[in-house]
Specification:
A 5-stranded mixed β-sheet has the order 1-5-3-4-2. The protein has 14 helices and 5 strands. Helix 2 crosses helix 3, helix 4 packs antiparallel against helix 5 and helix 10 crosses helix 12. With 312 residues, it is an alpha/beta fold.
């Protein structure tokens, strides 16, 4: 019986017989193509923000002068076009410069491979917000768990440890630090923004992540109105009260009204009210130092007046 099925024996194709080893290797290298910007779709739920900052301005100047030196990476979409894996900042810069295409390497990747590659390529950035790391690590962690062929030991705790260890292998952060970042994904957006702004440190933020969303909303309301943030000790107490189901508005107000050991009180004065007394190029720091010296001089002046009155 005739068998029409083709069997791949792994033999070299006829055309490859006349290639050198160097030519064969070159043929297998991923090719860079000029892809239309309109055909590129940002990665779904991309956790890294594209900001219009000085780094973006420098990138745009570089592309305007020399073009895109490092190609982006994308994968084909089932309905046409490509999903961008890495190169979102380059895409934004090219669009802002009015370009039509950019160099891209096209590679077939599964959903899990795409997430892992996207996260790994972006974690090399110099400046990354805590929220960006949090959701990036969470996406990669979930992708590793879904990856086919993974041998999990069936125990839920062991499953998590093994996945986290795998996640930490090629990451700039330790296993424990990665777990802390992933906890940040449980924060409400308003509190997570305070973490990005440096107003709440990572460790207190992790403690706050164990509060229920409604409790976090209540906490943020107090923090926002009184312009205070909890210390690590206070954050731990808030978590314990949440676990004991004793976290109320009054409890939050009382706890946050406590003066922290390293707390410094500030007097807030709008900068525009001070500008009229200084040169336009005077920095806020210089204005502050001048005001402190002026108040010191004024106090000494008052002391001399009192001394003169007492001497009469």
């Amino acid at each position: 019986m005739k068998n029409d099925r083709l069997i791949d024996l792994g033999l070299t194709g006829y055309g490859e017989l006349f290639m050198s080893t160097e030519e064969r290797l070159d043929a297998k290298k991923p090719k860079v193509e000029a892809i239309s910007l309109a055909a590129l779709t940002p990665f779904r739920n991309h956790p890294f923000k594209v900001k219009e900052d000085e780094e973006m301005a420098q990138l745009m100047r570089s592309i305007a002068d020399a073009g895109v030196l490092s190609p982006a990476l994308a994968r084909p979409l089932p309905d046409g076009g490509y999903e961008l894996i890495s190169g979102h900042r380059r895409l934004a810069a090219c669009k802002a410069l009015g370009m039509d295409t950019m160099p891209v390497i096209i590679r077939d990747l599964t959903d899990e491979e795409a997430v892992i590659t996207m996260v790994d390529s972006n974690l090399q950035r110099e400046h990354i917000l805590p929220s960006e790391k949090a959701f990036a690590y969470k996406m990669k962690y979930d992708a590793i768990k879904r990856s086919p062929g993974r041998k999990e030991n069936g125990d839920q705790l062991g499953h998590q440890i093994k996945s986290i260890d795998s996640l930490a292998e090629n990451s700039p952060d330790s296993r424990n630090q990665i777990q802390r970042y992933i906890r940040l994904t449980h924060l409400i957006p308003d509190i997570l923004k305070l973490v990005d702004e440096g107003k709440i440190a990572l460790t207190p933020a992790v403690e706050l992540s164990y509060l229920q969303p409604s409790e976090q909303e209540m906490l943020f309301s107090v923090m926002d109105s009184d312009e205070v943030t909890p210390s690590l000790s206070q954050a731990r107490r808030l978590r314990r009260m949440s676990e004991a189901q004793t976290l109320t508005d009054d409890a939050v107000l009382q706890l946050l009204s406590e003066v922290k050991g390293n707390q410094v009180e500030y007097v807030k004065v709008p900068v525009d009210k001070l500008r009229s007394f200084f040169r336009p190029d005077t920095s806020v720091k210089q204005m502050t130092e001048t005001l402190v010296k002026a108040m010191d001089f004024y106090n000494k002046h008052l002391a001399r007046q009192r001394k003169d009155r007492d001497a009469r």
